[in-house]
């Protein structure tokens, strides 16, 4: 794989992606579309060229995808951090409703998705899809010790207690996926550096990771000294995930061509530590993190190329997005060293309830169903993928599923169609915000996530215009940078939005 990557990279600037957009004749394609969902980790709105004309990182495949599909300019992750976003994406339900703060690491669990809850993959599974997850799970799972007791703890000591001979009872294959290859948490960060296949770890970790030979740079200091398996290469995780996804697609065409597939490719890139694979080092002028973003773009391109090679592209809905905004360290050093702003043009970063923490790239392509080069400014949320796939497959969501999910299918043909009246936002601390049109109300002081008195963040702190206000109200139409708090100027809007937020909290749903 590495040799072929180097060959492709050598001429990436001149490679033409000549995708056929011809629609297959009636009856010549499956009734249901294949679905490929590619989720980046910590990829910011400003990290992608088609969202930021001042980006210092080339993203030719993402830019090409946008030119051949639908680009969302007002799309939001359900949360400003990993675990709750993934829960919400997979269930169509905002994660604050289950009360968990923070994220899982190491042996953390149990699975945050309730056992009997309908999930995006289980919905599609019931409609005849073959479903697979390749990559990062991070929604919790249960490991056991040698006495058969569930561990459900983070940290190194908890990982050391795992009995590797015992199967996992509440992982992806128990929540709607037919196949899973990946990691429990952040692949190169979270104490347990080992791959899981379906419900077990076939090659258990044997030693504490030796960080001595790993790259040393400002973006490399995020991997904890956990247990690592002999086959786990911290610098080639995303290359392996790509190989596994390509193999799934090839096997699907060979073994089950009559059935549609749902492939969720959940990347490690571009979560810190920024360890681009060997073939990607030095490929940009934006340092290791820029190279890592470039690697993610390459992965998108390779998956699209595989769809074309296997004659799957015309009937596959491709969705590419990110789980939240860019990380603090990435923003600080990329701004200082390379004049690259992964959050541009928004205020805030990962963990913050300001736009930079949750406004994310979202691009969809479906030849013949989504016109080329279209854009929508409608506000949407990644929880909406649940209702979208339900409508595409003629699945009727019951009231106890997809409680915060609204179908985006109308935007495929009319990108100016309003689909959402209200949108909810949440942070790692469960601080909440609510959006309606131009108005955004934050039901808390400050960012709701990061501490802007910290050294790396203090240069980006803005003066609070209403320091005594218990919340924040911004007019995003006139003030997209969220610089002027209008809390006391529009008390009637604050009251209405706060009441609606409480109503959505009380009733357990925000979808109609």
| CATH class (first level) name | Alpha Beta
Radius of gyration: 22 Å
Please give the count of helices.
Answer: 12
Overall structural domain count: 1
N-to-C SSE series?
HEHEEHHEHEEEEEHEHEHHEEEHHEEEEH
Helix content: 10-25%
The CATH architecture is 3-Layer(aba) Sandwich
Report the biggest beta sheet as strand number plus sense, adding barrel if it closes.
Answer: 9 strands, mixed
Strand tally, please?
A: 18
CATH topology: the name is Alkaline Phosphatase, subunit A
What is the overall silhouette?
Answer: globular
Provide the structure class.
alpha/beta
| Strand content range | 5-15%
Integer average pLDDT: 94
Regions with little confidence, pLDDT below 50 for 5+ residues: 2-30
| CATH fourth-tier homologous superfamily | Alkaline Phosphatase, subunit A
The N- and C-terminal alpha carbons lie at a distance of: 47 Å
């Amino acid at each position: 794989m590495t040799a072929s990557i180097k060959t492709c990279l050598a001429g990436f600037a001149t490679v033409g992606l000549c995708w056929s957009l011809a629609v297959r004749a009636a009856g010549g394609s499956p009734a249901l579309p294949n679905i490929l969902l590619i989720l980046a980790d910590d990829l910011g709105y400003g990290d992608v060229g088609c969202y930021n004309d001042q980006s210092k990182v080339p993203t030719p495949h993402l830019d090409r995808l946008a030119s051949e599909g639908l680009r969302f300019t007002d799309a939001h992750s359900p949360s400003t951090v990993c675990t709750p976003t993934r829960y919400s994406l997979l269930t169509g339900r905002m994660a604050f409703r289950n009360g968990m703060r923070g994220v899982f690491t190491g042996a953390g669990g149990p699975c945050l998705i309730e056992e009997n809850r309908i999930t995006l993959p289980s919905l599609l599974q019931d409609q005849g899809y073959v479903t697979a997850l390749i990559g990062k799970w991070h929604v919790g799972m249960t490991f056991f010790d040698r006495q058969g007791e569930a561990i459900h703890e983070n940290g190194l000591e908890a990982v050391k207690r795992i009995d590797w001979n015992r199967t996992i009872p509440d992982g992806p294959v128990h929540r709607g996926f037919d196949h899973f290859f990946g990691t429990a948490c952040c692949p190169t960060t979270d104490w347990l550096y080992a791959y899981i296949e379906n419900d077990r770890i076939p090659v258990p970790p044997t030693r504490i990771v030796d960080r001595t030979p790993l790259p040393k740079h400002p973006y490399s200091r995020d991997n904890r000294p956990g247990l690592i398996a002999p086959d786990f290469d911290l610098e080639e995780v995303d290359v392996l995930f790509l190989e596994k996804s390509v193999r799934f697609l090839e096997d699907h065409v060979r073994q089950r061509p009559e059935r549609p597939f749902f492939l969720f490719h959940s990347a490690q890139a571009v979560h810190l530590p920024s360890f681009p694979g060997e073939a990607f080092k030095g490929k940009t002028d934006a340092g290791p993190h820029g190279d890592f973003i470039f690697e993610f773009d390459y992965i998108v391109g390779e998956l699209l190329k595989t769809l074309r090679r296997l004659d799957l592209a015309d009937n596959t809905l491709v969705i590419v997005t990110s789980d939240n905004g860019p990380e603090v360290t990435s923003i600080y050093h990329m701004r200082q060293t390379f004049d690259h702003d992964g959050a541009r043009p928004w205020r805030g970063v990962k963990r913050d309830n300001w736009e930079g923490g949750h406004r994310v790239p979202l691009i969809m392509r479906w030849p013949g169903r989504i016109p080329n080069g279209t854009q929508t400014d409608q506000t949407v949320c990644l929880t909406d993928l649940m209702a979208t796939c339900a409508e595409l497959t003629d699945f009727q969501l019951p009231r106890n599923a997809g409680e915060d999910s609204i179908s985006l299918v109308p935007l495929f043909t009319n990108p100016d169609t309003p689909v959402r009246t209200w949108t909810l936002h949440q942070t790692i601390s469960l601080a909440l915000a609510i959006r309606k049109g131009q108005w955004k109300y934050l039901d808390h002081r400050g960012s709701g996530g990061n501490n802007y008195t910290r050294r790396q963040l203090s240069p980006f702190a803005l003066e609070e215009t209403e320091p005594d206000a218990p919340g924040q109200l911004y007019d995003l139409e006139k003030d997209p940078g969220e610089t002027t708090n209008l809390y006391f100027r529009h008390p009637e809007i604050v009251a209405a939005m706060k009441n609606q937020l409480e109503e959505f909290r009380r009733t357990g749903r925000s979808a109609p």
